[in-house]
Amino acid sequence: MIAETHRDEVAIQGGALPEILLPTNCPGCGIALVMDNLRAHNYVCTECGHHFRLGADVWISLIADNGSWQERWSDVRSHDLLNWTVPKPYQETVERLLEDGLNESVRTGTCTLSGRPIWLATFDFGFVGGTLSIVAGERLARGMEQAAASGIPYILVSASGGARMQEGVLALMQLAKVNAAVGRLHSARVPYFSILTDPTFGGTAASLALVADINIAEPGAAIGFTGPRVIKQATYADLPPGFQSAEFQLAHGQVDMVLPRTELRPLLAQLLEMYA
Amino acid sequence: MSVWEIVELARHQDRPYSLDYIRRLAPDFVELHGDRLSADDPALVGGVGTWHGRTTIFLGHQKGRSLKERVARNWGMMHPEGYRKALRLAHHAAKFGFPIVSLIDTPGAYPGAGAEERGIAAAIAHAIMDWFRIPVPIVAAVIGEGGSGGALGMGVADRVIMLENSIYSVASPEAAASIVWRDNTRKVEAAEQLQLTSREILAMGVVEEVVPEPQGSASADHDAAARSLDEALYRNLQPLLEQTATQLLQHRYDRFRYIDSLIQAEPHFGPKID
User: Fold this and answer.
1) A73 touches chain B (CB under 8 A)
2) Where are the domains of chain A?
3) Helix axes B120-131 and B80-96, enclosed angle (nearest 10)
4) For residue A41, with 0-12 CB atoms within 10 Å meaning exposed, 13-18 middle and 19 or more buried, which class applies?
5) How far is A210 from chain B (nearest CA, A)?
6) What is the Cα–Cα distance from A131 to A129, expressed in whole angstroms?
7) Helix residue spans in B40-147 (DSSP H)
8) Do A259 and A217 contact (CB within 8 A), yes or no?
9) Exposure winner among A3, A211, A227, B173, fewest CB in 10 A?
């Protein structure tokens, strides 16, 4: 007899979430925000359901069982290969972000979710817009290769502006590098679940984020290839309200569901059991 | 020559486009149309022709010269249907064991609302992933503009070469300027920062070879440019013909998996895979 995972028995977060910077009022409905209430509610407004953007550290606490996170390859560092100098030196930007405690646009490692082992990778929009860089690609590809070899399910949380301009064509090549590795996951018949959060664009949308076995988008998240500013500059088109929203992508067949963050972890626990 | 002059050469309207090359490489070329789902993307031509005695699948971004033709070809900017057509023809090549030649010449995938509505991101993502499973030799050449994911969606190959005055970039200079500075008029500056010329791309280890162009660039002599491209593509194809499908796919994987190895070799890049 196999024990079934009942979604309502799975906690909505694996451990207490770190505090994040919040505005005094919700940008969705304007109510005054109370940190403790929001923290316990996965940083989703209890009034209007507005989903606040989360950094990699919060996502790890949210998804991983408390104390199970083992980060990998955190010492892989980026490198200013193009000597990018305007608007400011790229190396300076990266060093300042590292001092702020951020460690590149993707962090990866292993953990458990409801007791089941997983590989987890999460983008961090706070690090140069969550851009796909050489370091990000390397951490993703290494993790996927190990997941494929060991048969452990792979879970991705994306929040990314696309490929990192300051790393030039080598950033573009990361799309091929990571999608080759996604192919390994698929050939090895390892489950791959992708969670698309606000925003997921450009090279990240055009590589690993949309080719999972199950694509899950957060309500209201902006998801697309070309950003609205570039579309307007290129085509002078007026874009309708809701263009490139998660709901738009659901209607256009690109994601399997739009799921509130408070239901994410219980669903992942159920999926891990169904695909085990 | 300045970087921007090279960008202008790469985009020059007298420059040979994919069909100019394909018709010289394979005079018996038969164009094949459609993605078998909903449409035919005129920004990507595909078909079959005899090349050095071997039936070969040709794919290429196609730009137009007259205004009417440029509009019809959408300036070589593909919609999702184009990537789906390309992969249909790649599977066609795999069925018959034909090698594939892919010519890259695009500012990028089409940045418009219709492309978004029909899933351009997923179309490119699936194309990039599926190229790694096509068990026949693939040689690609950047012949003009290699812009962004729109180019890479056609650029996963066993060998990738570039014509001397072509460019390959994470984003077009205009898009990069728009992204970094929110100002697409700073395209010249962006082009200089991006290191998108063939020599720079070769130095980064992203392409195998830079193909010299005739005196005065490929625009000046289409026949001579086609001869150079033909020779380089065929020379790069030959060793691939001797590999088994398993070897091809493993080498293709490794080519992109370690494409940044020149950077990874830097001591502060971090540990090798354990």
Assistant:
1) yes
2) 54-274
3) 20
4) middle
5) 6
6) 5
7) 67-72, 80-96, 113-117, 120-131
8) yes
9) A3
**Closest C-alpha among B202, B205, B56, B217 to residue B136:** B56
Nearest to A177 among B111, B170, B257 (CB): B257
Peptide bond between residue A228 and the one before it cis (omega within 30 degrees of 0): no
Question: What are the structure tokens assigned to A33, written together?
Answer: 């925000």
Q: Which A residues 96-135 touch B at CB under 8 Å?
A: 134-135
Please state the pTM of the whole predicted model.
0.96
- Per residue in B248-273, pLDDT tens? 999 999 999 999 887 766 655 554 44
Nearest residue of A to residue B77, measured between CA atoms: A234
Chain B residue closest in CA terms to A225: B121
Taking only the tens place, the pLDDT of each residue in B115-127 is: 999 999 999 999 9
ipTM of this predicted structure: 0.96
B111 part of contact set with chain A, CB < 8 Å:
yes
Distance in angstroms (rounded) separating the CA atoms of residues B156 and B27: 26
The candidate with the shortest Cα–Cα distance to A260, out of A226, A222, A217, is A217
State the fold for domain B3-269: 2-enoyl-CoA Hydratase; Chain A, domain 1 (3.90.226)
Asked if B59 contacts B44 with a C-beta cutoff of 8 angstroms, the reply is yes
Q: CATH fold of A54-274, please? A: 2-enoyl-CoA Hydratase; Chain A, domain 1 (3.90.226)
